[in-house]
Write a structure and sequence with these properties.
about 525 residues, Beta-Lactamase, five-stranded antiparallel β-sheet, about 15% strand, disordered N terminus
């Protein structure tokens, strides 16, 4: 059966109060023994029977010390232990009262503490039972000494004993009421604290499971909160709360300063690392009565880019249809006319060279049109779960056996890498990248390239890197690598890398250039293989 908050409070309080009362018993017994040892002839301590008083107080001290030890060691039935302790205390005080020659105000006050403690520790019927036992003990002692020594005990003492007995029940009633009220208040406070704690845990789970990165910084730009998505988007692993935002990411810090000074004219978009997606950053002020914190949102632009890409490709498809209609026919006529002119006997020398140039450029323009049509006509991607190692083994075997020249691909992988990608489009991308790698390696007289497939330890995303041994990419050309129609080759169309990146984006992957000391490296970072779409 599930424990309610009030049950939990009672169980927790029972042990705490029992230990307090057990310690009180030891102190009380020690004081009684000490008072007797200091002045055995004190008329208020064992005046009638000193031996009985001393024996009872020593036994009481021993049992009280044993009870304190047991209450610490034994974590079961605290109310039963409390009931036994209090009944024994009443009996011990009654023997001491008997040894003292009857009820006295000093010893009778000890009953009030026991009755109050009993009704706090034992809510319910056993609390009033403690009061009844204490009242009977006082009345018994009073009647005993009236019957044995009537002349020495007056009726006034009997009245005092009766009032004292009634006071026991009054203390019991008030103790029960106050104890119940305090337990209710504490249970309510515990219930509210549990609700707040559960709500806080729920909020933490929601924030950590969000795809949007969330950071909170204070006025000094020190980090207060960082969720899992923010770590993945920024490429962070071990981050200490309280570190400075500038040491965490200088771009975010500079953007925050610009936003605070109203100098940010457009949204901040950046990449934390070359292989990571672009991040769109937005800032929001969090004002409270005690602090002015700033909330920073990091959003992966991949989905927005993919939607924009689909719209762009749809527009490009309509445009290329018109291009095919408006350019291809005149281009074909020009090419055909140039071929007819080349067959004429009157065309000689420099004129034939000009016709060759016309034919070459007609072929180049036709290749560009074919590439654009291929881009606009491609079908919607149908991602499949692919074992990248097995797929690359087959690809490398096919590529090297069908190549006209001897070429070598060195492939490394230490893990079973699973990706989700359209197989036909993956072939287009990898074939294009491998062809480019061999072409640029050949410029340095190399016929070898290298491929590495693995899983990123930080974001757990699979990736494929393709290295060539060519001259590399100059910093001036690096920013234009993936622009359409940008090429450094004399006969290139400038659409190869652009088409490869578009195919990757259509499969929720990223194609990036990774600068190298020698040669060049292109990395395809795939989406998680367990994605649903």
């Amino acid at each position: 059966m599930q424990q309610t908050p009030i049950d939990f409070v009672e169980s927790h309080d029972d042990w705490r109060l029992l230990r307090i009362y057990a310690a009180y018993r030891v102190v009380l017994a020690f004081l009684l023994v000490s008072l007797f040892s200091i002045n055995p002839n004190n008329p208020l301590i064992g005046a009638s029977n000193t031996l009985l008083f001393l024996t009872t107080s020593i036994i009481y001290l021993f049992v009280a010390a044993l009870g304190l030890i047991l209450s610490t060691k034994l974590r079961s039935e605290p109310r039963l232990q409390a009931f036994i302790f209090i009944i024994f205390d009443i009996v011990a005080i009654t023997f001491m009262m008997h040894a003292n020659g009857g009820p006295t105000i000093q010893l009778s006050m000890l009953y009030l503490v026991m009755v109050a403690a009993g009704n706090i520790l034992l809510p319910g019927k056993r609390g009033p039972l403690i009061a009844a036992v204490a009242a009977l003990a006082v009345l018994y002692e009073q009647f005993y000494f009236i019957l044995t020594n009537f002349e020495r005990v007056s009726a006034e003492n009997l009245g005092q004993a009766s009032i004292l007995g009634l006071s026991f029940f009054a203390v019991a009633g008030f103790s029960q009421l106050i104890s119940h009220r305090f337990r209710q208040v504490e249970a309510l406070a515990l219930h509210k604290s549990l609700e707040v704690e559960n709500l806080q845990k729920l909020n933490e789970q929601i924030i950590n499971r969000m795809h949007t990165g969330v950071l909170v910084v204070n006025q000094q730009r020190h980090l207060l909160l960082l969720n899992t998505a923010a770590k993945q988007l920024l490429g962070l692993n071990n981050v200490l709360v309280g570190c400075n935002l500038k040491s965490l990411n200088p771009i975010l810090d500079a953007g925050l300063l610009a936003w605070q000074q109203n100098l940010m004219l457009k949204p901040l978009i950046f990449k934390s690392q070359p292989a990571f997606p672009e991040v769109n950053v937005s800032y929001m002020k969090l004002e409270s009565s005690y602090a002015n914190n700033t909330l920073i949102f990091l959003e992966n632009t991949a989905q927005m880019t993919q939607k924009a890409q689909q719209l762009k490709l749809a527009s490009l498809g309509r445009l290329t249809a018109n291009i095919a209609h408006e350019i291809r026919n005149p281009l074909g006529a020009i090419s055909h006319a140039a071929q007819l002119l080349s067959e004429s006997e009157d065309i000689k020398g420099a004129d034939k060279r000009l016709l060759t140039i016309i034919e070459q450029h007609c072929h180049r323009v036709n290749t560009i049109i074919e590439t654009i049509l291929q881009l606009s006509r491609r079908q919607k991607s149908t991602p499949q779960l692919i074992n990248l190692k097995e797929w690359l083994d087959n690809f490398i075997d096919e590529f090297t056996h069908t190549s006209a020249q001897e070429k070598q691909i060195i492939f490394h992988t230490d893990a079973e890498v699973l990706i989700r990608f359209d197989t036909d489009q993956l072939y287009q991308v990898v074939y294009n990248m491998v062809n480019n790698a061999f072409r640029y390696s050949a410029k340095n007289s190399h016929n070898t390239i290298e491929m590495i497939a693995d899983i990123n330890n930080l974001n757990q995303l699979p990736y494929l890197e393709i290295y060539d041994l060519g001259p590399g990419v100059t910093p001036e050309n690096e920013k234009n690598l993936f622009e359409p129609f940008f090429t450094t080759e004399k006969n290139g169309t400038g659409l190869g890398l652009y088409l490869a990146r578009e195919l990757c984006e259509a499969n929720q992957a990223h194609l990036d250039y990774i600068p190298q000391p020698e040669g060049a490296c292109f990395r395809i970072t795939f989406s998680h293989p367990n994605r649903l779409i």
